[in-house]
Amino acid sequence: MSDVLSVQRLIPSPPEPIFDLLVDPAGHSEIDGGGTVKGARSGGRRLVLGDRFGMDMKLGVAYSTRNTVIELEENRRIAWQTTASGPAGAMLGGRIWRYVLEPVEGGTLVTESWDLTQERVTSKFVVKATMTNATKRNMERTLARIEELVTSVG
C-alpha cells in the first residue's frame, strides 16, 4: 500500500448537500463508518480554511483529536489534518482525511482519502500496518452513510 488509501462512491446527489455534511464537525459522528467519532467539541458551525476543531473519539479507549482544515474548495474538496491531543500528539498524528467531490452524470463521485504522507514517523508504519484493512472498510461505510443521509426523504 502507498501512503494514501482512497475509496470512491457515486452518490446520486448534487455535491452541495454532501459538502454540507463534511463542513460541519457536529455531523461527523453521524457519517463515521468506523464508529470511533463520538462528537465534536465545537460543532454546529461551517468550517473554513485554517479552522481548528476538536473531536471526541473512542477506539478501545477514549481520546480526543485536534484537527486543522488544510484544504477547502466550496462544494468540491475539504481536507483536515489530525493529531492526538495532549502529550500523545508529539508522537501520534499528522494523517490527513480528504474528501473530493466531482459532479458527474448521475450524481457526485466522492473520493475519501486517508493520507499518511504527513504522519509522524514514530507512528506511520504501525498505523499503516495495523489499520489499513479496517480503515478501508470504514471509509466505504462512511460513504454509504453519506449517501443514506443525502438521499433519504424527509
Give an account of the 3D structure.
The chain has 154 residues and is an alpha+beta fold. The protein has 3 helices and 7 strands. Strands 1-7-6-5-4-3-2 form a 7-stranded antiparallel β-sheet. β5 and β6 form a beta hairpin. It is globular.
- Report the C-alpha radius of gyration, rounded: 15 Å
Q: Walk across the major sheet and give the strand order.
A: 1-7-6-5-4-3-2
> What order do the SSEs take from the amino end to the carboxyl end, as H and E?
EHHEEEEEEH
Low-confidence stretches: none
Number of DSSP helices? Answer: 3
Compute the average pLDDT.
83
From the N-terminal CA to the C-terminal CA, the straight-line distance is 40 Å
* Protein structure class: alpha+beta
Global geometry:
globular
Share of β-strand residues? 35-45%
Main β-sheet description = 7 strands, antiparallel
Work out the helicity level: 25-40%
The count of strands amounts to 7
How would you summarize what this structure contains?
With 154 residues, the protein is an alpha+beta fold. 28% of the residues lie in helices and 40% in strands. The protein has a 7-stranded antiparallel β-sheet with strand order 1-7-6-5-4-3-2.
